[in-house]
Amino acid sequence: MSLKQLIATAFIICLITVFSSCKKEEITESFVRGGNALIQTNDGNILVAGYNVSSSNGFEAALVLTNQLGVVTWSKMYGGYFSDALFSVKNARDGGYIASGFSNTNMASSPRLLVLRTDASGDQQWAYANYSNNSFSQGFCIIPHADSGYLVTGYIQTSGSADRDIYLLRINENGEKLWDKRYIFTSSAPYDSIYEEAYSIIAAPDSGYFLTGSMHGYSNCCGKIFLMKVSETGDSLWTKIYNPGAGFSLLITNDGNIAIGGTSYGSTSDDMTIIKTDLEGNKIWSKIYGGTGYEYGSMMVTTTDDGYAITGITESKGAGSQDVYLVRTNASGDMIWDKTYGGGDIDEGFGLIQMSDGGFCITGISNSDGSSIFLNRTSADGIQQWYSPIK
Q1: The domain spanning residue 181 has which CATH number?
Q2: Which domain holds residue 232?
Q3: Around Cβ 25, how many Cβ atoms within 10 Å?
Q4: Could you tell me if 287 and 273 are in contact, meaning their C-beta atoms sit under 8 angstroms apart?
Q5: How many CB atoms lie within 10 A of CB 125?
Q6: Distance (Å, whole) CA 239 – CA 226
Q7: pLDDT per residue as tens digits for the range 167-204
Q8: CA 287 to chain centre
């Protein structure tokens, strides 16, 4: 699998799908565990969302709660015989957690968008995985709706060979569908299947929401970063398209504009990128970060001094063939420092939060000492304070 294929399918989802019908003894001990997102819980602990491998059912969606030193408090898996995974998690309004991802409920390689609700101990309260009427779909990001319930964004696809369209779903507090929207865009690209996916959604300062992801791509490559504005009821208001790449994270900047974090595709190599726009999607500046090798950007956060931090992957630096990458910038997007983390094999960063003391927590995958969920904690200047591989 190429690196661009990995990007186009949102993190390591293809690796999960390949082995989705395998039992534990048939799976090599590599790429079988991963963290895709993390949050700080209301009581100050760390919750990781991703996937793990069980003894009988292959890959399952997973939540792992640790204390502030990375010591596991509990680890829970959710799903059935076929593969399941979580890409996003938030603190739920009335306690517990709400997460989104996918579940292969009927057969391998037929994902259905999954929303999972748990209590504070990680015990499942409810889960739904067929909002899209048996079409293929995945939920890459979940956030609270301004009024009540939640919004989930991702993609929908009527079959494995059909076009993939941006999907937005609104549910109530019990997980019941209130409405959904499918956004279909035309492309002049001469390919049979056009892939368009939304990886992140945030609330707009006035009303409505912003989405980003990849548009006008095809099955394994080469979409473009986009920014879409939708109303409170999901009606598309406008869309702006930028350079080739994928936008994986969105935030409102401290000066009231928008920042998109992700990956920029180049003719010779790919790079981590941040794009800043105004609230109408007009580009203010864009920056890329990387070396002579491949770099990949995923989650981005604003920092306490109005700058940015973004995590991802680097092949240009570090100890292994790929390493977890963290870039810290000022408010103008100029790099202040960058750090790598990992061992001698493949390590990749997908989720990032800033802690109250200015340091960072990163989750992802590690293959340097057998497969594990990567979790580390750094100081405000990026010095690793602890590393906790989770199996």
Answers
A1: 2.130.10.10
A2: 3-387
A3: 7
A4: yes
A5: 14
A6: 7
A7: 999 999 999 999 999 998 876 666 667 899 999 999 99
A8: 21
